[in-house]
């Protein structure tokens, strides 16, 4: 078994974001790390929309990012700390639109280890040095400089190690142009290690240490070290240093130390300032809960600076420092606004705040004001004795604020993110869809959603209006060449033509010189200021002064097809002749003296646009009924000579020649493609050689059941092609590569580009008798997301076999449920306390729910109609119960009637796992499944983490025990159990009498139920421990599973063992076999193994394309969606794995990680090819592509075609 791994949707979680002028222009960009991927985002200061400039896989894991700029430079560089044991400096090159590795310095072993640096990065604000640190002990400092040619140089590393020190955070100090300094939060554990009583551990001090890099002596010294608050977790740089031009100081220098409940300003040898972190004035809040800062950003303006700090509730605080020169007068803090909890905050100079959310969608906010003149209370260090530091060990009095909706910020853009995907299903539920949808349960807490993902581009419709009849075509045209926007819409009907003018409104006009009594075949703005209309009886050339020149068809003939551009017109007559016209320099259309007889009825014609600075385009493509396409020359020397011919499998219905950029074929200039649509719904794309007119490199694709119509359009200032069949497709260039994606929209009968003031980049189409104007806003997103809000974190969901409803369980830890909240408020009201209704009723999706102590849960069961995308009903769980598993079971004892069984537990603690009692709740379906009727609940002794219907009964994994239950009148009745499992049963699958059990730490085990003796026996397990997170059966003997470390693997049981177990009626044979390696008597064999780099949360065996082969689709916690495609032939395996070996040597990782060791992080890669690496072949330089293709005895086109075919036939993407 060999598989090909392809990522369909790369991870969307952002672990870190940095801002800088990476392209060297005056515009700021953001680089974000998605864990295994780097992406450069460019926010548009005018529209406030964020666009992706480039995204690349790094085939390694990014642990830290930092931006820096050399003194006096205009361009920022990115420093990346990863698991490769190397420090990497990247430069973004706007010319090639790629990241370039400037430096790669090895300093340690690979892997995310405890004492190998890479976890923390800190740069000197003046760009002179960088410190890279590990979690423990090791810190290295590199000096950055320029050489004589102004290129960036990097020194050898200087050590700043401290043995037995755990590092919590590091930051570069702003000291102007003095020796660079770095501050670190460290805890020494030598004494705690030796002391067995635990006394030293409780008294361990957290030190704030300054390290100075002496540029003269070229080494690092520990300058200063003082104990600080033991709960400190984050350092923030404070501006400092003198301005070069004057003696004024930028700021006081030093750091803000963020601790639990407090913020401290700290610098060597100056008084400290401490303020409390204000907390929400919510009657439900636990007053003893500590509050910490999780993200921070500092912003410098002319002569001032401020900090935005974010607490773990999502509240932003504005912190300011009043200072005179270097002396701090006071530290002030006030509430600013509430945004989602972020993993990174970035402030842009154009007045935007980028929030890279920890979970869920990311946001770009625009500053409306800086919160200076509002009446929010402000706390200052001067209002406490000795600046709040009179007794550092005791807390300051608590400060409270009232949370409120956004006042200082406004949302400018929202970037959709699937992170985290907790469960998913792949089903085709939506009406008239020929491909399945992916339903994902995403998010955390009250911001959770159920998202429906459909493959295709999202379409924004701006106009939809009914027409008097059913047109067969639509065009738009300008009046003159230099007009910015279109002036007319022309609609062709069976017996006439309608012309509409585009102005404030769209209305019919008569005096355009167009013939309205006949249908139209083509419309073109020709020459500088004339219009052209082709109709069955002739050609009308309407000049600027409304004079009309008409060319009439010879008697007895009609025009059947036409193609035009700015200077050329070709028409085909019903007698299978071609007539060619060209515009002369006076703006007159001249007919070429000869007509070309084709010998077969012409069905389609196409010429390209006139190239820049040329008189004409040299090639014409003609499709005839004899199933051929001919390329005919329009060159003055060889006019109307046939150059080349291509045979087709069906008559052509449409042809379109377009020049489009595809970097995999030619990186320098656009390639001329001939697109041929056939009457059987197939599209052929061939490359037309511009020198000799030959057709090469044909690719085919099935679009739908109707004959294909092709239209050349403009999308985002680049040429694109709309292909219309039973679905509408768009062929476009995105990030220099060619893509082909369906539009998620009604089927269009005809379309054209449309440009007006309100939609300069729009499209116009007709669907039946409706005229629609629309645009395609985002080209990068190939999966359109529709989301439905949920109330708590989704845990699992399943589908009803009959009515397609979803049954979902949601639950949140440390959160009060609805009932508990109401109860607590009633108690407070009875005590006579004033309840601030506004604060209590703030929307939880923005502000979250009030936190509660451990062991408190809010949970519910939700019924969803995914087709209508609405919630049908919610059942809240009371008495601190939380749901963990669910199953739909057709109980044989009730005649196969379906019941929903939900596994819950009360007062659950996560670690170590415990609960006061577990329950199995049984519900009956009412209203065709739209409601649930409670039957009974059965008490069990542990948390039931997995449930499954099995042979008319319920099989349940309750803690470490596997049990089978049958339904009774008052509760479920336990029939049989097996207690030999080691940690906890987390997933179950079944076929026949076999049950596959996924254990939390001990991989996957095969169990069998022998009914005659009522035995439940384990007969096979894995030879290595695995922390199973998701599992699916590939066939009766084979399973595929994902573990918590980001691996996916396939295990198979020997068919002989399988038959032997099935043939044993009582299971006596299994009982008497001797166990192997302290486990079951048989072991499964590892067939395939691969490190995906994301924790896999669900795996499904599905077919994504109508009639396509089955693939394994997996979803990952960070929002990854990928597939594993089985190879069909041995040749494919050899070809693709050889290509992969070449790509490993050619395409070195951006972070310097070895791709083979990355994909075999925990276990060596086996029988799975990295498709993402193979697909970067398209981005290699031409010479390297040629070399690799030569080694494989193929042409470059054949290699690309094979890769495209693998992707398209398996996924349709």
Care to describe what's here?
The chain has 1213 residues and is mostly beta strands. Strand 7 (77-82) and strand 8 (86-93) form a beta hairpin. The longest helix is centred in the last third of the chain and has 17 residues, at 1130-1146. 47% of the residues are buried.
- Tally the beta strands: 91
* Integer tally of domains: 5
The strand order across the widest sheet is: 88-89-90-1-91
- Average pLDDT confidence is 94
**Shape-level CATH architecture of the largest domain:** 7 Propeller
Rg, nearest Å:
34 Å
CATH fold descriptor of the largest domain:
Methylamine Dehydrogenase, Chain H
Structural class: mainly beta
CATH superfamily of the largest domain: YVTN repeat-like/Quinoprotein amine dehydrogenase
What's the CATH class of the largest domain, please?
Mainly Beta
Shape: globular
What gap, in angstroms, lies between the N and C termini?
A: 24 Å
- Major β-sheet, in short? 5 strands, mixed
Subunit structure: Associated with the spliceosome.
Domain RSE1/DDB1/CPSF1 C-terminal: 859-1178
Main location: nucleus
Family: Belongs to the RSE1 family.
């Amino acid at each position: 078994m060999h598989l090909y791994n392809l990522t369909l949707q790369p991870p969307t979680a952002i672990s870190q974001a940095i801002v800088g002028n990476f392209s060297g222009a005056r515009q700021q960009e953001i680089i974000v790390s998605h864990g295994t991927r780097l992406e450069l985002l460019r926010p548009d200061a005018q529209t406030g929309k964020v666009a992706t400039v480039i995204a690349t896989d790094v085939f390694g894991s990014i642990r830290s990012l930092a931006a820096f700029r050399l003194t006096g430079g205009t361009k920022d560089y990115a420093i990346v700390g990863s698991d490769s044991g190397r420090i990497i400096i990247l430069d973004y090159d706007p010319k090639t639109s790629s990241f370039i590795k400037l430096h790669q310095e090895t300093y340690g072993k690979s892997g995310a280890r405890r004492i190998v640096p890479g976890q923390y990065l800190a740069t000197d604000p003046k760009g002179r040095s960088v410190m890279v640190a590990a979690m423990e002990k090791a810190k290295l400092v590199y000096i950055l400089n320029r050489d004589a040619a102004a290129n960036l140089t990097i020194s050898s590393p200087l050590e700043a190690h401290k043995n037995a020190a755990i590092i919590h955070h590091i930051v570069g100090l702003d000291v102007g142009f003095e020796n660079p300094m770095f501050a670190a939060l460290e805890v020494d554990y030598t004494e705690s290690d030796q002391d067995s009583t635990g006394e030293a551990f409780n008294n361990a001090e957290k030190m704030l240490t300054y390290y100075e890099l002496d540029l003269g002596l070229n080494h690092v010294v520990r300058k200063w070290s003082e104990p600080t608050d033991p709960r400190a977790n984050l350092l923030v740089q404070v501006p400092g240093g003198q301005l070069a031009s004057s003696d004024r100081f930028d700021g006081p220098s030093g750091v803000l130390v963020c601790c639990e409940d407090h913020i401290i300003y700290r610098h060597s040898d100056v008084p400290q300032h401490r303020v409390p972190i204000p907390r929400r004035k919510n009657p439900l809040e636990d007053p003893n809960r500590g509050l910490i800062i999780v993200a921070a950003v500092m912003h410098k303006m002319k002569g001032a600076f401020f900090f935005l700090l974010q607490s773990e509730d999502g509240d932003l605080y504005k912190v300011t420092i009043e200072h005179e020169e270097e002396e701090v007068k006071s530290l002030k803090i006030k509430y600013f606004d509430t945004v989602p909890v972020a993993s990174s905050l970035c402030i842009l100079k154009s007045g935007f705040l980028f929030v890279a959310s920890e979970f869920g969608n990311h946001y770009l906010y625009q500053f409306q004001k800086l919160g200076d003149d509002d009446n929010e209370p402000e706390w200052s260090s001067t209002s406490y004795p000795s600046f709040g530091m009179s007794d550092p060990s005791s807390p300051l009095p608590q400060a409270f604020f009232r949370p409120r909706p956004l006042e200082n910020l406004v949302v400018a853009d929202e970037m959709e993110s699937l992170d985290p995907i907790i469960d998913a299903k792949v089903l085709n539920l939506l009406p008239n869809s020929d491909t399945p949808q992916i339903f994902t349960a995403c998010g955390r807490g009250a911001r959770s959603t159920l998202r429906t993902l459909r493959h295709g581009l999202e379409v924004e419709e701006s106009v939809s209006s009914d027409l008097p009849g059913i047109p067969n075509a639509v065009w738009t045209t300008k009046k003159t060449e230099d007009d910015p926007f279109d002036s007319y819409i022309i609609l062709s009907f069976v017996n006439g033509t309608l012309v509409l003018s585009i102005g404030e409104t769209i209305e019919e006009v008569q005096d355009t010189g167009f013939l309205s009594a006949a249908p139209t075949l083509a419309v073109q703005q020709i020459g500088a200021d004339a219009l052209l209309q082709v109709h069955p009886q002739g050609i009308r050339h309407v000049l600027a002064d409304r004079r009309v020149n008409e060319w009439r068809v010879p008697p007895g003939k009609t025009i059947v097809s036409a193609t035009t551009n700015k200077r050329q017109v070709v028409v085909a007559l019903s007698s299978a002749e071609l007539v060619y016209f060209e515009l002369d320099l006076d703006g007159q259309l001249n007919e070429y003296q000869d007509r070309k007889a084709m010998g077969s009825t012409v069905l389609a014609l196409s010429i390209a646009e006139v190239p820049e600075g040329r008189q004409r385009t040299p090639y014409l493509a003609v499709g005839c009924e004899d199933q051929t396409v001919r390329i005919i020359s329009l060159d003055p020397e060889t006019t109307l000579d046939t150059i080349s011919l291509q045979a087709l499998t069906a008559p052509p219905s449409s042809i379109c020649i377009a020049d489009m950029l595809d970097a995999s074929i030619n990186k320098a200039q656009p390639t001329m493609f001939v697109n041929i649509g056939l009457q059987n719904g197939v599209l052929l794309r061939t490359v037309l050689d511009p020198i000799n007119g030959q057709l090469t490199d044909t690719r085919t694709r099935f679009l739908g059941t109707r004959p294909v119509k092709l239209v050349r359009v403009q999308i985002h200032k680049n040429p694109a092609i709309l292909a219309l069949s039973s679905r509408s497709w768009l062929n476009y260039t995105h990030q220099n590569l060619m893509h082909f994606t369906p539009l998620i929209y009604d089927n269009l009968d005809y379309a054209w580009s449309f440009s007006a003031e309100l939609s300069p980049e729009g499209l116009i189409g007709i669907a039946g008798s409706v005229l629609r104007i629309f645009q395609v806003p985002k080209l990068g997103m190939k999966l359109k997301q529709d989301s439905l809000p949920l109330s708590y974190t989704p845990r699992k969901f399943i589908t009803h076999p009959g009515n397609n409803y979803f049954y979902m369980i949601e639950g949140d830890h440390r959160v009060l449920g609805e009932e508990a909240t109401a109860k607590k408020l009633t108690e407070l009201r009875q005590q006579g306390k004033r309840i601030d209704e506004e604060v209590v009723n703030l929307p939880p999706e923005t502000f979250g729910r009030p936190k509660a102590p451990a062991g408190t849960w809010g949970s519910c069961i939700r019924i969803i109609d995914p087709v209508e995308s609405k919630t049908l009903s919610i059942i809240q769980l009371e008495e601190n119960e939380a749901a963990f598993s669910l199953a739909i079971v057709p109980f044989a004892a009730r005649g196969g009637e379906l019941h929903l069984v939900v596994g819950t537990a009360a007062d659950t603690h996560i670690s170590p796992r415990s609960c006061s009692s577990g329950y199995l709740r049984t519900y009956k379906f009412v209203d065709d499944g739209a409601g649930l009727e409670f039957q009974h609940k059965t008490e069990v002794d542990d948390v039931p983490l997995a449930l499954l219907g099995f042979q008319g009964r319920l099989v349940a994994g309750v803690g470490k025990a596997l049990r089978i239950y049958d339904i009774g009148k008052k509760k479920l009745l336990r029939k049989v159990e097996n207690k030999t499992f080691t940690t906890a049963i987390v997933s179950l699958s079944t076929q026949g009498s076999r049950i596959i059990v996924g254990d939390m730490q001990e991989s996957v085990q095969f169990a069998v139920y022998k009914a005659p003796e009522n035995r439940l026996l384990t007969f096979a397990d894995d030879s290595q421990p695995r922390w199973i997170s998701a599992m699916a059966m590939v066939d009766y003997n084979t399973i595929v599973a994902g573990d918590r470390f980001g691996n996916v693997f396939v295990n198979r049981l020997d068919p002989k063992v399988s038959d032997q177990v099935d043939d044993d009626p009582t299971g006596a044979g299994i009982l008497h076999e001797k166990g192997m390696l302290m486990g079951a008597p048989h072991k499964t064999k590892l067939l395939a193994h691969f490190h995906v780099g994301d924790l896999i949360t669900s795996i499904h065996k599905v077919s994504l394309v109508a009639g396509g082969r089955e693939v394994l689709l997996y979803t990952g916690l960070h929002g990854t969606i990928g597939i594993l495609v089985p190879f069909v032939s041995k040749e494919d395996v050899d070809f693709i794995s050889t290509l992969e070996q070449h790509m490993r040597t050619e395409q070195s990782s951006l972070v310097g990680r070895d791709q083979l060791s990355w994909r075999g992080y925990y276990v060596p890669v086996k029988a799975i090819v990295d498709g993402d690496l193979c697909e970067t072949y398209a981005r290699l330089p031409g010479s390297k592509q040629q070399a690799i293709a030569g080694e494989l005895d193929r042409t470059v086109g054949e290699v690309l075609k094979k890769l495209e075919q693998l992707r398209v036939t398996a996924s349709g993407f």
